[in-house]
Amino acid sequence: MKIPFLSFDVINNQIKIEMQLAYARVFESNWYILGNEVKTFESDYAKFNQTNYCVGVANGLDALHIALKCLDVEPGDEVIVPSNTYIATALAVSFVGAKVVFIEPDIASYNLDPTKIEEKLSSKTKAIMPVHLYGQACKMDEIMKIAHKHNLYVVEDNAQAHGATNKGQLTGSFGDINATSFYPGKNLGALGDAGGITTNNKELYLKACMLRNYGSSKKYYNQTIGFNSRLDELQAAFLSVKLRYIQEWTLQRQNIALMYNHLLQNIGDLVLPYVHPESSHVFHLYTIRTSQRDSLQRHLSANGIGTLIHYPVPPHLQEAYEYLKFKPGDFPIAEEIANTTLSLPLYIGMSESEVNYVCKIITAFFNK
Ligand SMILES: *Cc1c(COP(=O)(O)O)cnc(C)c1O
Fold it and tell me: What was the pLDDT predicted at 368?
């Protein structure tokens, strides 16, 4: 049996006709940038995320960058970022010229550990960027309390967690202004690059609209130094189709995760995903950990099973951040996760027999 890490076959087949209609509608409309499709998707996504506003942008990294710009985060400021995040969160901070201050995650949930935030605050700290990694909501109630107490902004990186909740509230609706990605492989994914910003604050919403479109709210009148980071009409039309299915697909992801949890209990030194009782997990990724990660990955690959590592090198050890002069051992939890984590296949349409096969091969590896 061949099982890819990710496949769009089933999902694409399910929505093929609706997607073709969406394409035809945009094609015939004669209007391809910032029109009704983007407006409709923004309004539908804001409703889905239970926020007042959504701003469609070109990708998740731009969404993070523009969110920080909206808050006037600038050189001299410090921003708290989890040490085990995808590089994009840190890059957005670098783009606005602020200093990235890494904080170690909680080893159980892989999310920002709120108890470690206060010791890293300084008079320069301006914002906290929680990342709902792999699809599990951070302890946002505790993070928001710390932010309020110290008068800090919160920018959620919700790229991996569309529809996840903490204490019943949706991720992407806690922070002052939040970013998400609709990269094809994300839980809600376009057929190309796309991203979004969510906020309840009208002023920040208007600023984000301006920044994504050359710093202009009236054509050819530029109020601020802006970007060209607009969500395409075509991608918005595709996303509107997929948004109708996100709840169904999230349940499917959670079911696949439950099957994995059940079949992978008590095997070798495998650590399965821990879900905090007050958070929900939308399983953008199903990640396990083992000290034998590399040989397990090779064994799975030899048996036709695709896996990925999220992520092999934590941001502080990336060549791009060499100038910050971090060294191995500076963030041991992030490094431990990088050295032991493995993401198993999980996609819409993955069958029970495919999950069974992956688990059978993993079990055989530990029994040999
Ligand atoms: C995917 C991702 C991003 C960046 O999104 P792009 O659309 O690829 O720019 C940012 N943060 C996290 C946590 C992500 O997973």
Answer: 83
